[in-house]
Design brief:
This protein has 282 residues and is mainly α. The protein is built from 11 helices and no strands. The chain has one domain.
């Protein structure tokens, strides 16, 4: 259970830092690129100081797929944010948990109980209640474009999550650190290419922020893989999704003084119920 908790903490830290960066003058593309480079460097330390320095073709390929779709997801995130779709983006990324859950049930023999299935449903509903807000979209083509981008974002994030679920069944648990290194090495190569082609020198604050963001980004992936060693995907993904949104919403209310609507409060209560149901029979 500790790995689930750590995944929620580090994934939420990643989101909260980017929420804070949005209100500043830093360039989000630059900060994101630097964060992936920092994640790769930290993943290298994680690998070399881990108990196992083992690797395989399977861990390399699945990690590379994860890294490619991590980076594609971030590229899609930038235009969505310009449409003020932060809440919608958070929901789409959380709902992407459905992809590995479906793959786990159809292809890897995972069988949630009645109560756990109910928990998955409640968890999904809680994400919609907490995350969905009125989104400002101007221009006649904005709704069509935003829907297309959100769909692509959902598929990209879902694919990266499915690669993590696949590692549970095809990879070696001892290669988790190498999987993380493979994922962020690929993402960092793409990030270096982006930084070079833009020909824009990062500011000192962008480098610092990107470096800070990179640490929880790599740790959340590592601890998610460790959580998948202990629990099936239909438990891990709903809990980190509902728990993460619950954590970030709580921090936003108590630390950033953001108001909590009645709908969000109801969503929090349902998220807590969902996490309780998911732990029944396990």
């Amino acid at each position: 259970m500790i790995y689930l908790f750590l995944t929620i903490i580090f994934s939420s830290t990643f989101i909260l830092i980017f929420r804070w960066v949005q209100g500043r003058d830093e360039d989000l593309t630059t900060v994101g690129a630097i964060s992936y480079i920092a994640s790769a460097l930290f993943a290298a330390l994680l690998f070399f100081f881990s108990d196992f320095q083992t690797y395989s073709v399977t861990a390399t390929l699945l990690g590379a797929i994860n890294g490619i779709f991590y980076f594609l997801g971030y590229l899609l995130l930038i235009p969505i944010l310009f449409w003020k779709g932060v809440a919608l983006t958070a929901v789409a990324s959380r709902l992407a948990m459905l992809m590995p859950i479906i793959f786990g049930i159809l292809f890897w023999g995972e069988r949630p109980s009645f109560w756990q299935t109910l928990g998955i449903g409640f968890g999904t509903f809680s994400l919609l209640l907490i995350g969905l807000k009125k989104t400002s979209m101007r221009g006649s083509d904005a709704p069509t474009r935003i829907i297309l981008l959100m769909l692509m974002f959902f598929l990209v994030v879902g694919t990266s999550r499915t690669a993590q679920e696949a590692f549970k069944y095809y990879g070696n648990p001892e290669e988790a650190a190498f999987y993380v290194l493979s994922a962020f090495s690929i993402a960092s190569f793409a990030s270096i290419f982006i930084l070079c082609t833009r020909k824009r020198r990062p500011t000192f604050s962008e480098i610092i922020i990107g470096a800070v963001v990179g640490i929880p980004n790599s740790l959340q992936t590592f601890y998610l893989l460790k959580a998948l060693e202990q629990f099936p995907g239909f438990i891990v993904f709903p809990i980190i999704s509902a728990g993460g949104l619950l954590f970030t919403t709580s921090i936003a209310v108590f630390l950033f003084k953001e108001p909590l609507s009645k709908r969000s409060a109801l969503g929090i209560a349902i998220a807590i119920l969902a996490m309780a149901l998911l732990n029944i029979d396990h």
